[in-house]
Phospholipid/cholesterol/gamma-HCH transport system ATP-binding protein (Pedobacter nyackensis), 256 residues
Amino acid sequence: MEEKPTLKNSTKVIEIKGLNKSFGNYHVLKGVDLDLYKGENLVVLGKSGTGKSVLIKIIVGLLTPDAGQVSVLNQHVDQITYKELLALRLKVGFSFQNSALYDSMTVRENLEFPLVRNQKSLTKREVNMAVEEMLDAVGLLQTINQMPSELSGGQRKRIGIARTLILRPEIMLYDEPTAGLDPITCLEINNLINEVQERFHTSSIVITHDLTCAKAVGNRVAMLLDGQFQRLGTFEEVFNTNDERVKPFYDYNFIH
Ligand SMILES: Nc1ncnc2c1ncn2[C@@H]1O[C@H](COP(=O)(O)OP(=O)(O)OP(=O)(O)O)[C@@H](O)[C@H]1O
């Protein structure tokens, strides 16, 4: 598998400096610095409980940091009004781990929902076209009238991604996109994440424990260790180490 190039000459779409967050006595994020460059897929790795979700919640303004700066698309998330934050969130798509589809709605209705809610000026025809185009992009146009319960886990994941993409976000946040899927479906989801990057020019943060996914989709990889991104670079750079905190990740995923 060929390593993807880093895109560090692009502009920054997320800039995080000196981010700190504690819950009671537990200091989760201890001065986190991180940049996301336009057009790149940045994979975030780290043991359970190291603060990956906390970081994502701070990026979308669901949690407030104790200290530090978080700029998303040139806006400081902790300094903007609630209305500005809501507008910013529309530009940041969040693909949940459990896909979070509405079980009582068809696939078509699931995709229509965010569009109709957020882009009230669209005609019925425009909504239909957008839904069909997006389902086609994830290869599932044939499921348009099905219920989520009739789909496989991989298909639900794709529909969840399509539903997030339909608002054409500039940034995508993927939370464990391959969790609980078989290896073949994992490869399909990895390919989809790469297709989304190419076709929609999104910049993405991908949280995962799956190093095959990290290697396949990441232009860069960042590993959260003891409250900071202590390893950051290409996949090879991050794992070319004898650091005992890093090696087990590799050994567990790629038994050699
Ligand atoms: N709202 C909250 N109140 C109190 N503690 C919290 C809150 N949110 C997160 N935490 C704590 O912060 C730590 C980091 O949680 P987080 O969910 O970010 O971990 P994670 O790295 O995403 O883990 P996983 O890989 O298991 O999803 C955990 O110890 C968690 O209990």
Observations:
- The pocket of adenosine-5'-triphosphate is lined by residues 23, 26, 28, 46, 48-54 (CB under 6 Å).
